[in-house]
Design brief:
Shape: globular
Largest sheet: 5 strands, parallel
Number of helices: 11
Helix content: 40-55%
Number of strands: 7
Number of domains: 1
Bound molecules: thiamine diphosphate
Strand order of the largest sheet: 1-2-3-7-6
Oligomer: single chain
Strand content: 5-15%
CATH architecture: 3-Layer(aba) Sandwich
């Protein structure tokens, strides 16, 4: 029999992950709406990816580092990014904590206080950087774990090989999470990899590789707990392949109906991790329908309020254009 206190702690953790997913979903939807209204120029939707993202970020300690790809909104929310901070980035305002309004709006994560390292949008280049952060932590004698996320397209880059190989050789504390949604924009995985099981690549580097249903939050969480524990114990990196469905287009600039059939899009919609997770929580008696609805509605209200607030904040100043720019 599981002690009541343990059950309460489990429930609390899971409801928190659900809450983060709802916040990320609400921000995603509101951002999309803002693009449609012509108030902001760009959005990179994450619907379908939220489960693996909150499940992995939830396992980290405050001193750990995150190196996130552009589709990492739910990871950042789980780490502590607030709706207001996100909207400052979306509107590219001066106070945007992610890039001071310099980067593709909302497209790159970087947050000093949350230990989210700055990356560029050049696919996969952040993988060796994540490994470098882990190596630096090792040299400094710090027990830091680095979570590094990327898509299936990133595994087609040399950076993926260099990063994973170096991390494995030096047994560095990195948890690599490939959010495999089957597409690099319009290029399907079958045109990138003859072996569709990306986790199997781990064996070639000499590290464990796990393929998990990335829409199954409890399963993702269990896999992440193990990988983070291995990393922290000095046993080296792990590659987690999280199989997810990209429900929306690559970005607001993309029309996915050009390269995905109506049947496939309908199928993708059936793999919404938020729906699956809500059902799982409900079945356990951990979250009632009303409570779930309350959480969703509050998240939507917060996202709307954050957008209205952020839109009124000051724009970046022209005289600050060269701030943070390094000249060689
Ligand atoms: C080196 C490089 N080539 C091309 C691009 C343009 N680009 C941006 S996102 C993307 C797709 C990457 O796909 P994947 O890694 O599977 O991640 P997803 O967007 O599906 O989450 C591409 C090709 C880029 N940013 N960097």
């Amino acid at each position: 029999m599981v002690p009541a206190a343990e059950t309460a702690a489990h429930r609390g953790r899971h409801v928190q992950m659900y809450r983060w997913m709802c916040v990320a979903r609400a921000l995603d939807e509101r951002t999309h709406l803002l693009v449609r209204q012509g108030r902001v120029p760009f959005a990179g939707p994450i619907r379908g990816h939220e489960g693996i993202q909150v499940a992995t970020a939830a396992t980290l300690a405050p001193d750990d580092w995150l190196v996130l790809h552009y589709r990492g909104l739910a990871s950042a929310v789980a780490r502590g990014l607030t709706p207001r901070e996100w909207m400052l980035a979306v509107f590219a305002k001066a106070a945007d904590p992610l890039s001071g309004g310099r980067n593709l709006p909302g497209g790159c994560f970087s947050h000093r206080g949350l230990r989210i390292a700055p990356v560029s949008q050049v696919v996969a280049t952040w993988i060796p950087k994540a490994v470098g952060i882990a190596y630096a932590a090792r040299l400094r004698g710090e027990a830091t774990v680095v979570l590094c996320t990327f898509g299936d397209g990133a595994t087609s880059k040399g950076d993926f090989h260099e990063g994973l190989n170096f991390a494995a050789v030096h047994r560095l504390p990195v948890v690599f999470v490939c959010e495999n949604n089957g597409y690099a924009i319009s290029v399907p995985l079958s045109a990138q990899a003859a072996n569709p099981v990306l986790a199997e690549r781990a064996a070639g580097y000499g590290m464990p590789g796990v393929s998990v249903d990335g829409t199954d939050v409890p399963a993702c969480h269990a896999v992440a707990v193990e990988a983070v524990a291995r990393a922290r114990a000095g046993e080296g990196p792990t590659l987690i392949e999280a199989r997810v469905w990209r429900i929306d287009a690559h970005t607001s600039e993309d029309d996915q109906r050009r390269y995905r059939s109506p049947e496939e899009l309908e199928e993708a919609g059936r793999h919404d991790p938020l729906v699956t997770y809500e059902r799982w929580l409900e079945e356990r008696g951990w979250l009632g329908r009303e409570e779930a609805r309350g959480i969703r509605e509050q998240a939507a209200r917060e996202a709307a309020a954050a957008a209205a607030w952020a839109e009124r904040q000051p724009e970046p100043r022209a005289e600050d254009l060269e701030a943070h720019v390094l000249a060689g």
